[in-house]
Design goal:
Belongs to the REXO1/REXO3 family. The chain is α+β, with helices and mostly antiparallel strands and about 475 residues long. The protein has helices at about 25-40, 55-60, 75-90, 95-110, 115-130, 140-145, 150-155, 180-190, 195-200, 365, 370-375, 380-390, 405-410, 420-425, 435-445, 455-480; strands at about 5-10, 10-15, 205, 215, 230, 240, 255, 260-265, 270-275, 285-290, 305, 320-330, 330-340, 345-350, 360, 395-400, 410-415, 415-420.
Length: about 475
Protein backbone atom coordinates (compact mmCIF):
# COMPACT_ATOMS: atom_id res chain seq x y z
CA UNK A 1 0.00 0.00 0.00
CA UNK A 2 1.36 3.40 -1.02
CA UNK A 3 -0.01 5.28 2.01
CA UNK A 4 1.36 2.75 4.45
CA UNK A 5 4.80 2.91 2.88
CA UNK A 6 5.16 6.64 3.54
CA UNK A 7 6.28 8.33 6.69
CA UNK A 8 5.63 11.96 7.59
CA UNK A 9 8.74 13.80 8.69
CA UNK A 10 8.34 17.39 9.77
CA UNK A 11 5.34 17.77 7.49
CA UNK A 12 7.08 16.08 4.45
CA UNK A 13 6.20 12.71 2.94
CA UNK A 14 9.17 10.25 2.45
CA UNK A 15 9.47 6.66 1.25
CA UNK A 16 11.80 4.34 3.19
CA UNK A 17 14.25 2.11 1.22
CA UNK A 18 15.19 -1.49 1.88
CA UNK A 19 18.80 -0.68 2.71
CA UNK A 20 20.20 1.40 5.53
CA UNK A 21 20.72 4.53 3.49
CA UNK A 22 18.90 7.72 4.39
CA UNK A 23 15.51 8.02 2.79
CA UNK A 24 15.34 9.96 -0.45
CA UNK A 25 12.61 12.40 -1.35
CA UNK A 26 10.74 12.10 -4.58
CA UNK A 27 9.99 15.17 -6.68
CA UNK A 28 6.30 14.89 -5.87
CA UNK A 29 7.01 14.59 -2.18
CA UNK A 30 9.27 17.63 -2.24
CA UNK A 31 6.60 19.66 -3.97
CA UNK A 32 3.95 18.62 -1.45
CA UNK A 33 6.32 19.32 1.40
CA UNK A 34 6.99 22.81 0.11
CA UNK A 35 3.31 23.54 -0.17
CA UNK A 36 2.62 22.16 3.28
CA UNK A 37 5.31 24.28 4.86
CA UNK A 38 3.51 27.42 3.74
CA UNK A 39 0.02 26.41 4.87
CA UNK A 40 0.49 24.23 7.93
CA UNK A 41 2.46 24.33 11.13
CA UNK A 42 3.67 21.89 13.70
CA UNK A 43 1.21 20.55 16.31
CA UNK A 44 0.87 22.86 19.35
CA UNK A 45 -0.91 22.33 22.67
CA UNK A 46 -4.66 23.10 22.76
CA UNK A 47 -5.37 26.74 23.59
CA UNK A 48 -6.87 27.35 27.02
CA UNK A 49 -8.76 30.53 27.84
CA UNK A 50 -7.07 32.75 30.38
CA UNK A 51 -8.79 32.80 33.76
CA UNK A 52 -8.01 35.79 35.98
CA UNK A 53 -6.62 34.77 39.31
CA UNK A 54 -8.75 37.02 41.49
CA UNK A 55 -8.74 36.46 45.18
CA UNK A 56 -12.54 36.54 45.32
CA UNK A 57 -12.73 33.80 42.72
CA UNK A 58 -10.54 31.48 44.78
CA UNK A 59 -12.57 32.03 47.95
CA UNK A 60 -15.95 30.40 48.37
CA UNK A 61 -18.70 32.61 49.76
CA UNK A 62 -19.77 31.63 53.27
CA UNK A 63 -23.01 29.68 53.64
CA UNK A 64 -25.52 29.91 56.49
CA UNK A 65 -25.83 26.46 58.13
CA UNK A 66 -29.30 24.94 58.10
CA UNK A 67 -30.94 24.85 61.53
CA UNK A 68 -34.01 22.82 62.40
CA UNK A 69 -36.78 25.02 63.77
CA UNK A 70 -34.83 28.26 63.24
CA UNK A 71 -36.68 31.50 63.99
CA UNK A 72 -35.68 32.85 60.55
CA UNK A 73 -35.66 30.63 57.43
CA UNK A 74 -32.16 29.82 56.24
CA UNK A 75 -32.82 30.92 52.66
CA UNK A 76 -33.79 34.41 53.86
CA UNK A 77 -30.63 34.69 55.96
CA UNK A 78 -28.51 33.51 53.04
CA UNK A 79 -30.10 36.03 50.70
CA UNK A 80 -29.29 38.95 52.99
CA UNK A 81 -25.80 37.59 53.69
CA UNK A 82 -25.12 37.63 49.95
CA UNK A 83 -26.41 41.21 49.75
CA UNK A 84 -24.15 42.20 52.65
CA UNK A 85 -21.17 40.59 50.91
CA UNK A 86 -21.91 42.45 47.67
CA UNK A 87 -21.83 45.77 49.51
CA UNK A 88 -18.77 44.92 51.65
CA UNK A 89 -16.77 43.94 48.56
CA UNK A 90 -17.14 47.53 47.35
CA UNK A 91 -15.17 49.06 50.23
CA UNK A 92 -13.19 46.25 51.91
CA UNK A 93 -9.53 45.77 50.96
CA UNK A 94 -9.86 42.00 50.45
CA UNK A 95 -12.52 39.41 49.83
CA UNK A 96 -11.83 37.70 53.14
CA UNK A 97 -12.32 40.97 54.99
CA UNK A 98 -15.61 41.51 53.15
CA UNK A 99 -16.79 37.98 54.01
CA UNK A 100 -15.90 38.41 57.68
CA UNK A 101 -17.64 41.76 57.98
CA UNK A 102 -20.77 40.51 56.18
CA UNK A 103 -20.92 37.44 58.44
CA UNK A 104 -20.54 39.63 61.51
CA UNK A 105 -23.33 41.99 60.41
CA UNK A 106 -25.67 39.11 59.57
CA UNK A 107 -24.99 37.43 62.91
CA UNK A 108 -25.82 40.62 64.79
CA UNK A 109 -29.06 41.01 62.82
CA UNK A 110 -30.05 37.42 63.57
CA UNK A 111 -29.26 37.65 67.28
CA UNK A 112 -31.24 40.88 67.63
CA UNK A 113 -34.32 39.34 66.05
CA UNK A 114 -36.99 37.27 67.73
CA UNK A 115 -38.96 36.57 64.57
CA UNK A 116 -38.77 36.62 60.79
CA UNK A 117 -40.37 40.05 60.45
CA UNK A 118 -38.05 41.67 62.95
CA UNK A 119 -35.09 40.09 61.17
CA UNK A 120 -36.25 41.59 57.86
CA UNK A 121 -36.47 45.04 59.43
CA UNK A 122 -33.02 44.80 61.01
CA UNK A 123 -31.49 43.35 57.84
CA UNK A 124 -32.87 46.16 55.66
CA UNK A 125 -31.43 48.77 58.03
CA UNK A 126 -28.08 46.98 58.02
CA UNK A 127 -28.07 46.93 54.22
CA UNK A 128 -28.73 50.68 54.15
CA UNK A 129 -25.87 51.23 56.58
CA UNK A 130 -23.45 49.20 54.46
CA UNK A 131 -24.48 51.05 51.30
CA UNK A 132 -23.73 54.34 53.00
CA UNK A 133 -20.16 53.15 53.60
CA UNK A 134 -19.47 52.68 49.88
CA UNK A 135 -17.26 55.59 48.70
CA UNK A 136 -18.43 57.49 45.63
CA UNK A 137 -16.14 56.91 42.67
CA UNK A 138 -15.29 60.24 40.93
CA UNK A 139 -14.09 58.43 37.84
CA UNK A 140 -17.42 56.73 37.31
CA UNK A 141 -19.19 60.04 37.85
CA UNK A 142 -17.09 61.76 35.22
CA UNK A 143 -17.53 58.86 32.82
CA UNK A 144 -21.29 59.09 33.14
CA UNK A 145 -21.36 62.84 32.71
CA UNK A 146 -19.41 62.61 29.46
CA UNK A 147 -21.91 60.26 27.87
CA UNK A 148 -24.32 61.75 25.39
CA UNK A 149 -27.89 61.72 26.64
CA UNK A 150 -30.30 60.10 24.20
CA UNK A 151 -34.03 60.64 24.64
CA UNK A 152 -36.59 57.87 24.58
CA UNK A 153 -38.17 59.40 21.46
CA UNK A 154 -34.82 59.45 19.65
CA UNK A 155 -34.26 55.77 20.39
CA UNK A 156 -37.66 54.74 19.03
CA UNK A 157 -38.12 57.21 16.20
CA UNK A 158 -34.63 58.36 15.22
CA UNK A 159 -33.08 61.82 15.30
CA UNK A 160 -36.16 63.48 13.84
CA UNK A 161 -38.29 62.20 16.71
CA UNK A 162 -36.33 64.28 19.19
CA UNK A 163 -37.51 67.44 17.40
CA UNK A 164 -41.00 66.28 16.51
CA UNK A 165 -44.06 65.71 18.69
CA UNK A 166 -46.18 62.78 17.58
CA UNK A 167 -47.86 59.71 19.07
CA UNK A 168 -45.09 59.05 21.59
CA UNK A 169 -46.23 62.14 23.49
CA UNK A 170 -49.72 60.87 24.14
CA UNK A 171 -52.42 63.32 25.07
CA UNK A 172 -53.33 61.24 28.12
CA UNK A 173 -49.97 61.70 29.84
CA UNK A 174 -49.92 64.22 32.68
CA UNK A 175 -47.63 67.19 32.82
CA UNK A 176 -45.97 68.26 36.07
CA UNK A 177 -48.27 71.28 36.38
CA UNK A 178 -51.30 68.97 36.23
CA UNK A 179 -50.33 67.48 39.60
CA UNK A 180 -49.92 70.63 41.66
CA UNK A 181 -52.21 73.09 43.35
CA UNK A 182 -55.74 73.52 42.07
CA UNK A 183 -55.18 71.05 39.20
CA UNK A 184 -54.25 68.30 41.65
CA UNK A 185 -57.23 69.24 43.82
CA UNK A 186 -59.64 68.74 40.90
CA UNK A 187 -58.19 65.33 40.11
CA UNK A 188 -58.29 64.18 43.74
CA UNK A 189 -62.00 64.98 43.97
CA UNK A 190 -62.66 61.77 42.01
CA UNK A 191 -61.36 59.75 44.98
CA UNK A 192 -63.22 61.52 47.79
CA UNK A 193 -65.17 59.26 50.13
CA UNK A 194 -68.94 59.54 50.03
CA UNK A 195 -70.96 60.15 53.18
CA UNK A 196 -72.07 56.51 53.09
CA UNK A 197 -68.45 55.35 52.91
CA UNK A 198 -67.53 57.57 55.83
CA UNK A 199 -70.26 56.00 57.94
CA UNK A 200 -69.48 52.46 56.78
CA UNK A 201 -65.79 52.82 57.67
CA UNK A 202 -66.38 54.20 61.15
CA UNK A 203 -65.48 57.86 60.63
CA UNK A 204 -66.64 60.24 63.38
CA UNK A 205 -69.72 62.16 62.24
CA UNK A 206 -71.27 65.24 63.88
CA UNK A 207 -73.99 64.59 66.42
CA UNK A 208 -77.26 66.05 65.11
CA UNK A 209 -78.27 67.52 68.47
CA UNK A 210 -75.16 67.85 70.64
CA UNK A 211 -72.39 70.19 69.42
CA UNK A 212 -68.92 68.99 70.30
CA UNK A 213 -69.98 65.36 70.29
CA UNK A 214 -69.39 62.76 67.60
CA UNK A 215 -71.55 59.83 66.59
CA UNK A 216 -70.65 56.46 65.07
CA UNK A 217 -72.76 54.53 62.59
CA UNK A 218 -70.83 51.27 62.69
CA UNK A 219 -71.83 48.44 65.00
CA UNK A 220 -70.54 49.19 68.47
CA UNK A 221 -68.42 46.68 70.28
CA UNK A 222 -70.11 44.71 73.02
CA UNK A 223 -69.78 46.61 76.26
CA UNK A 224 -69.29 45.03 79.64
CA UNK A 225 -72.05 45.36 82.21
CA UNK A 226 -69.68 46.66 84.90
CA UNK A 227 -68.20 50.08 84.06
CA UNK A 228 -65.11 49.24 86.10
CA UNK A 229 -64.44 46.17 83.95
CA UNK A 230 -62.46 46.62 80.76
CA UNK A 231 -61.22 44.30 78.01
CA UNK A 232 -57.56 44.46 77.04
CA UNK A 233 -57.24 45.35 73.35
CA UNK A 234 -54.00 43.37 73.09
CA UNK A 235 -54.67 40.03 74.78
CA UNK A 236 -58.46 40.10 75.24
CA UNK A 237 -58.32 39.62 79.01
CA UNK A 238 -60.93 41.27 81.24
CA UNK A 239 -59.41 43.41 83.99
CA UNK A 240 -60.72 45.73 86.69
CA UNK A 241 -59.93 49.42 87.08
CA UNK A 242 -60.58 51.97 89.80
CA UNK A 243 -62.67 55.11 89.37
CA UNK A 244 -59.54 56.99 88.31
CA UNK A 245 -58.71 54.38 85.64
CA UNK A 246 -55.84 52.63 87.41
CA UNK A 247 -55.60 48.84 87.27
CA UNK A 248 -56.77 47.37 90.55
CA UNK A 249 -54.52 44.33 90.27
CA UNK A 250 -51.05 44.33 88.76
CA UNK A 251 -51.05 41.76 86.00
CA UNK A 252 -48.74 41.28 83.04
CA UNK A 253 -50.18 41.39 79.54
CA UNK A 254 -48.91 38.47 77.43
CA UNK A 255 -49.90 39.06 73.83
CA UNK A 256 -48.99 38.88 70.15
CA UNK A 257 -48.12 42.31 68.80
CA UNK A 258 -48.41 41.18 65.17
CA UNK A 259 -51.51 40.65 63.06
CA UNK A 260 -53.10 37.39 62.02
CA UNK A 261 -52.20 36.48 58.45
CA UNK A 262 -53.32 33.62 56.26
CA UNK A 263 -50.70 31.53 54.51
CA UNK A 264 -51.25 28.95 51.81
CA UNK A 265 -49.97 25.49 52.74
CA UNK A 266 -50.35 22.09 51.06
CA UNK A 267 -53.99 21.14 51.45
CA UNK A 268 -55.40 24.54 52.41
CA UNK A 269 -54.67 27.65 54.43
CA UNK A 270 -53.12 28.28 57.84
CA UNK A 271 -53.40 31.40 59.99
CA UNK A 272 -50.36 32.66 61.86
CA UNK A 273 -49.33 35.77 63.75
CA UNK A 274 -46.98 37.99 61.77
CA UNK A 275 -44.82 38.70 64.82
CA UNK A 276 -43.64 35.18 65.65
CA UNK A 277 -45.45 32.89 63.17
CA UNK A 278 -47.36 31.43 66.10
CA UNK A 279 -50.64 29.67 65.41
CA UNK A 280 -54.02 30.97 66.54
CA UNK A 281 -54.38 30.32 70.26
CA UNK A 282 -50.64 30.03 70.89
CA UNK A 283 -49.16 31.83 73.93
CA UNK A 284 -48.17 35.43 73.33
CA UNK A 285 -44.63 36.34 72.33
CA UNK A 286 -44.56 39.75 74.04
CA UNK A 287 -44.95 40.68 77.71
CA UNK A 288 -46.14 44.14 78.83
CA UNK A 289 -46.39 45.49 82.37
CA UNK A 290 -50.18 45.83 82.36
CA UNK A 291 -53.35 45.56 80.30
CA UNK A 292 -54.56 48.46 78.15
CA UNK A 293 -57.66 49.36 76.18
CA UNK A 294 -58.49 51.55 73.17
CA UNK A 295 -61.24 53.76 74.57
CA UNK A 296 -61.38 56.21 71.64
CA UNK A 297 -64.83 55.16 70.45
CA UNK A 298 -66.19 55.32 73.98
CA UNK A 299 -65.10 58.93 74.51
CA UNK A 300 -67.07 60.86 71.88
CA UNK A 301 -67.05 64.27 73.57
CA UNK A 302 -64.60 67.10 72.91
CA UNK A 303 -64.75 66.88 69.11
CA UNK A 304 -64.32 69.90 66.83
CA UNK A 305 -65.50 70.21 63.23
CA UNK A 306 -63.83 71.98 60.32
CA UNK A 307 -65.96 74.83 59.01
CA UNK A 308 -66.60 76.64 55.75
CA UNK A 309 -64.26 79.48 54.86
CA UNK A 310 -64.34 82.15 52.19
CA UNK A 311 -62.78 80.81 48.99
CA UNK A 312 -59.29 81.99 48.15
CA UNK A 313 -58.51 83.92 44.97
CA UNK A 314 -57.24 80.80 43.22
CA UNK A 315 -60.13 78.67 44.48
CA UNK A 316 -57.71 76.19 46.05
CA UNK A 317 -58.75 75.08 49.57
CA UNK A 318 -55.57 73.04 50.05
CA UNK A 319 -54.43 69.42 50.05
CA UNK A 320 -52.74 67.84 53.06
CA UNK A 321 -51.75 64.37 54.21
CA UNK A 322 -51.56 63.67 57.91
CA UNK A 323 -50.59 60.89 60.27
CA UNK A 324 -50.80 60.57 64.04
CA UNK A 325 -49.02 58.51 66.67
CA UNK A 326 -50.67 57.44 69.91
CA UNK A 327 -49.84 55.94 73.29
CA UNK A 328 -51.86 54.07 75.92
CA UNK A 329 -53.03 56.06 78.95
CA UNK A 330 -55.39 55.27 81.80
CA UNK A 331 -58.28 56.41 79.60
CA UNK A 332 -57.17 54.58 76.43
CA UNK A 333 -55.30 55.64 73.30
CA UNK A 334 -54.30 59.32 73.24
CA UNK A 335 -52.44 61.51 70.76
CA UNK A 336 -48.65 61.88 71.19
CA UNK A 337 -47.55 63.21 67.79
CA UNK A 338 -49.16 64.70 64.68
CA UNK A 339 -47.53 65.44 61.32
CA UNK A 340 -49.09 67.32 58.40
CA UNK A 341 -47.47 67.61 54.95
CA UNK A 342 -48.59 69.56 51.89
CA UNK A 343 -48.88 68.42 48.29
CA UNK A 344 -45.18 69.26 47.74
CA UNK A 345 -44.29 66.65 50.40
CA UNK A 346 -43.05 69.40 52.74
CA UNK A 347 -43.80 69.18 56.46
CA UNK A 348 -46.00 72.12 57.46
CA UNK A 349 -46.85 71.01 61.00
CA UNK A 350 -45.15 68.45 63.22
CA UNK A 351 -45.33 68.38 66.99
CA UNK A 352 -45.30 66.08 69.99
CA UNK A 353 -48.43 66.25 72.12
CA UNK A 354 -48.79 65.83 75.86
CA UNK A 355 -51.58 63.34 76.72
CA UNK A 356 -54.33 64.50 79.07
CA UNK A 357 -53.98 61.53 81.43
CA UNK A 358 -51.16 59.38 82.81
CA UNK A 359 -49.28 57.27 80.25
CA UNK A 360 -49.14 53.54 81.00
CA UNK A 361 -47.49 52.38 77.74
CA UNK A 362 -45.74 54.65 75.23
CA UNK A 363 -46.38 52.13 72.42
CA UNK A 364 -42.90 52.90 71.09
CA UNK A 365 -42.76 49.78 68.94
CA UNK A 366 -45.42 51.29 66.66
CA UNK A 367 -45.35 55.02 67.38
CA UNK A 368 -41.62 55.61 67.67
CA UNK A 369 -42.44 58.05 70.50
CA UNK A 370 -40.48 57.63 73.73
CA UNK A 371 -40.85 58.98 77.23
CA UNK A 372 -37.99 61.41 76.56
CA UNK A 373 -39.85 62.86 73.56
CA UNK A 374 -42.78 63.93 75.74
CA UNK A 375 -40.84 65.14 78.78
CA UNK A 376 -40.47 68.75 77.66
CA UNK A 377 -43.58 69.19 75.52
CA UNK A 378 -46.43 71.36 76.72
CA UNK A 379 -48.60 71.17 73.57
CA UNK A 380 -52.04 69.75 74.36
CA UNK A 381 -54.76 68.29 72.18
CA UNK A 382 -56.67 71.59 72.33
CA UNK A 383 -53.63 73.45 70.99
CA UNK A 384 -53.38 71.02 68.07
CA UNK A 385 -57.08 71.37 67.29
CA UNK A 386 -56.76 75.16 67.17
CA UNK A 387 -53.86 74.97 64.71
CA UNK A 388 -55.61 72.48 62.44
CA UNK A 389 -58.89 74.41 62.38
CA UNK A 390 -56.93 77.46 61.27
CA UNK A 391 -55.03 75.45 58.63
CA UNK A 392 -57.95 73.44 57.22
CA UNK A 393 -61.38 74.36 55.93
CA UNK A 394 -64.34 72.07 55.34
CA UNK A 395 -63.28 71.84 51.67
CA UNK A 396 -59.63 70.99 52.33
CA UNK A 397 -58.77 67.49 51.09
CA UNK A 398 -57.16 65.38 53.81
CA UNK A 399 -55.29 62.24 52.74
CA UNK A 400 -54.36 59.37 55.03
CA UNK A 401 -54.38 55.63 55.53
CA UNK A 402 -57.35 54.47 57.62
CA UNK A 403 -57.74 58.14 58.43
CA UNK A 404 -60.65 57.54 60.80
CA UNK A 405 -58.11 56.37 63.39
CA UNK A 406 -56.20 59.66 63.15
CA UNK A 407 -59.37 61.76 63.25
CA UNK A 408 -60.44 59.98 66.44
CA UNK A 409 -57.05 60.71 67.99
CA UNK A 410 -57.36 64.37 66.97
CA UNK A 411 -61.05 64.47 67.94
CA UNK A 412 -61.63 66.12 64.58
CA UNK A 413 -64.70 65.79 62.33
CA UNK A 414 -63.94 66.28 58.64
CA UNK A 415 -65.77 64.94 55.60
CA UNK A 416 -63.51 65.81 52.63
CA UNK A 417 -61.31 62.74 52.85
CA UNK A 418 -59.22 60.53 50.55
CA UNK A 419 -58.40 57.26 52.31
CA UNK A 420 -55.69 55.14 50.67
CA UNK A 421 -57.08 52.07 52.43
CA UNK A 422 -60.29 52.59 50.41
CA UNK A 423 -58.66 53.70 47.14
CA UNK A 424 -56.54 50.52 47.24
CA UNK A 425 -59.02 48.00 48.71
CA UNK A 426 -58.26 44.54 50.04
CA UNK A 427 -59.29 41.72 47.71
CA UNK A 428 -61.52 40.27 50.46
CA UNK A 429 -63.29 43.57 51.07
CA UNK A 430 -64.14 45.13 54.41
CA UNK A 431 -63.24 44.81 57.21
CA UNK A 432 -59.93 43.72 55.69
CA UNK A 433 -57.56 46.53 54.73
CA UNK A 434 -54.14 46.44 53.14
CA UNK A 435 -51.26 47.84 55.16
CA UNK A 436 -49.62 51.07 54.01
CA UNK A 437 -46.27 49.30 53.99
CA UNK A 438 -47.69 46.69 51.60
CA UNK A 439 -49.12 49.32 49.25
CA UNK A 440 -45.80 51.14 49.01
CA UNK A 441 -43.94 47.90 48.29
CA UNK A 442 -46.46 46.71 45.68
CA UNK A 443 -46.99 49.95 43.75
CA UNK A 444 -44.00 52.22 44.35
CA UNK A 445 -41.47 49.44 45.01
CA UNK A 446 -40.29 51.10 48.21
CA UNK A 447 -39.92 49.85 51.74
CA UNK A 448 -41.24 52.02 54.57
CA UNK A 449 -41.74 51.44 58.29
CA UNK A 450 -38.53 49.40 58.35
CA UNK A 451 -37.11 51.14 61.42
CA UNK A 452 -37.03 48.85 64.45
CA UNK A 453 -37.47 51.94 66.65
CA UNK A 454 -41.03 52.46 65.40
CA UNK A 455 -42.98 54.27 62.70
CA UNK A 456 -42.31 57.80 61.56
CA UNK A 457 -45.49 59.84 61.11
CA UNK A 458 -43.90 62.10 58.48
CA UNK A 459 -42.83 59.06 56.44
CA UNK A 460 -46.35 57.61 56.57
CA UNK A 461 -47.95 60.92 55.58
CA UNK A 462 -45.60 61.32 52.60
CA UNK A 463 -46.31 57.75 51.55
CA UNK A 464 -50.06 58.46 51.37
CA UNK A 465 -49.52 61.58 49.26
CA UNK A 466 -47.14 59.78 46.89
CA UNK A 467 -49.54 56.85 46.50
CA UNK A 468 -52.35 59.15 45.40
CA UNK A 469 -50.14 61.00 42.90
CA UNK A 470 -49.10 57.62 41.48
CA UNK A 471 -52.75 56.52 41.34
CA UNK A 472 -53.76 59.63 39.41
CA UNK A 473 -50.99 59.07 36.86
CA UNK A 474 -51.91 55.41 36.37
CA UNK A 475 -55.61 56.14 35.97
CA UNK A 476 -54.80 58.85 33.41
CA UNK A 477 -53.01 56.23 31.29
CA UNK A 478 -56.14 54.07 31.22
CA UNK A 479 -58.42 56.97 30.27
CA UNK A 480 -56.35 58.20 27.31
Amino acid sequence: DLMSSKTTVAGRSVTPSNDSEAPTLSLKACTLAGMASKTTSTIVPKRIAHVPSLQSASLQRPVIPTEFGAKVPTNIRQRYLNLFIDECLKFCSSSQEAFDKALSEEKVAYERSTSRNIYLNVAVNTLKKLRSLVPNSPSSTNKTSNKKVVSHEAVLGGKLAAKTSFTLNRSGSLRAEDLTGAALYRRLKEYLMTEEQLKENGYPMPHPEKPGRAVLFTAEEKKTIDSSCRICCRCGTEYMVSASGNCIRKEECVHHWGRLRKQRVPGGWETHYSCCSGAVGSPGCQVAKQHVHDGRKESLDGFVKTFEKLPTTDGYPGIYALDCEMCYTKQGLELTRVTVINSDLKVVYDTFVKPDTKVVDYNTRFSGVTEEDLENTSITLRDVQAVLLNMFSADTILIGHSLESDLFALKLIHGTVVDTAIVFPHRLGLPYKRALRTLMADYLKRIIQDNVEGHDSSEDARACMELMVWKIKEDAKVKR
